[in-house]
Inverse folding.
């Protein structure tokens, strides 16, 4: 759960800076956010969560 919240915060921060520097339009940000919410309600949500968890666990910590 903590990983998911951290990734949501990270992606939200990236989206904020893209909007602030006008690299991304408000319409495209709305579509990207909507896509994320709809994707989360499909069967693809669990494999995506497993994949991101595996990637994070593969990062060596010292």
């Amino acid at each position: 759960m903590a990983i998911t919240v951290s990734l949501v915060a990270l992606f939200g921060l990236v989206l904020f800076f893209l909007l602030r520097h006008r690299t991304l339009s408000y319409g495209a940000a709305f579509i990207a956010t909507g896509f994320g919410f709809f994707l989360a309600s499909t069967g693809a949500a669990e494999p995506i969560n497993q994949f991101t968890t595996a990637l994070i666990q593969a990062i060596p910590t010292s």
Observations:
- The chain has a mean pLDDT of 80.
- Helices lie at 2-20, 26-40, 45-58.
- The chain is about 75% helix and 0% strand.
- Residues 40 and 46 are 8 Å apart (CA to CA).
